[in-house]
Design goal:
It is built from 3 helices and 12 strands, in the order H-H-E-E-E-H-E-E-E-E-E-E-E-E-E. The chain is α+β, with helices and mostly antiparallel strands and about 200 residues long.
Length: about 200
């Protein structure tokens, strides 16, 4: 019962975050945001953050199979946001091929995710911005060999954030998977969500 309540609470929390952020980015803006205004907004968010990491599969525009990984740290500078230690095993959540999924779930590799600031729809706090996450690369062993997996992310739109001088909520959406350079259809879109405060 306690576990069920915890899962329900996390699911409702993430649903609320997604609705809030989607609402923010659905607003029309008539203001022209200059490069200088963007740089000022980004600079005000620079620092190290501590918060929570959630992952989930996106099905029918809903976030399902959510997990909370507890305390996580990330850094924001004047150009990008860096997640230094993302557990590669979490990417298995979106994989539907049994062999690859099993290999990824067993991985203990921590990989670095980077997301560049892409555009801003508001430079009044809370800032609303889209992100350009870089492709994640993981090596796994299965079927008697070592294989390279690449996970590209949506650039802008689905990958976005809301923040101010002290807090950030960020969503990165993995769009697909390549196995040894070849696109694989055995992947379901998944979201990686960070929410926390500057320390």
């Amino acid at each position: 019962m306690i576990k069920t309540r915890r899962i329900l609470a996390v699911t409702l929390c993430l649903a609320a975050v997604t609705l809030i952020m989607t609402s923010c980015f659905g607003d029309d803006t008539t203001d022209t945001i200059t490069e200088e205004q963007m740089r000022t907004s980004i600079a005000s968010m620079a620092g190290t953050y501590d918060g929570s990491l959630f992952t989930g599969v996106i099905q029918n525009n809903m976030l399902t199979q959510t997990d909370s990984l507890g305390s996580q740290k990330w850094a924001a500078d004047n150009n990008k946001i860096t997640f230094a230690e993302f557990p590669a095993s979490q990417l298995a959540k979106g994989v539907t091929d049994a062999d690859i999924k099993k290999a990824l779930e067993a991985s203990e590799e921590m990989i670095k995710l980077e997301a560049y600031y892409y555009s801003f729809s508001s430079i009044s706090a809370p800032y609303q911005f889209t992100l350009a996450p870089q492709t994640a690369t993981v090596s796994v062993e299965y079927n008697g060999g070592t294989h390279e997996l690449k996970f590209p992310f949506y650039q802008g739109g689905y990958s976005y954030g809301v923040g101010n001088m002290t807090t950030q909520t960020l969503q990165l959406v993995a769009a697909g998977m390549y196995v040894d350079g070849t696109h694989s259809s055995y992947f379901t879109e998944m979201a990686i969500i960070y929410t926390g405060k500057k320390i």
